[in-house]
Amino acid sequence: MKKLMHIVASMAVALIISCSGGTPQDQLKDISELQAKKYPMAAEETESMNAFIAEGKKLLEEGKLKESSESLKKALALLKQAEDAYIFNKAD
Predict the structure, then answer these.
(1) What is the pLDDT of residue 86?
(2) Contact between 12 and 81 (Cβ < 8 Å)
């Protein structure tokens, strides 16, 4: 049962990531909301997430919306993974 829940959660994350278009501004809002929840993340994940956010903001300032969105999408994926892991582990 635990494996099934993990598979379902992983599929949901993949679906959300593939469907999460939106503007970079929307993505930054979503990132801020997820960061406020302070889900536990490994140091490497936090560093990667921060790098993706910084890159996304830089690209946004340069007017490169598509590239910015792609970078921010990677940050969101890490945050949503942390959220799913937290929910999954809390259910144990």
Answers:
(1) 92
(2) no
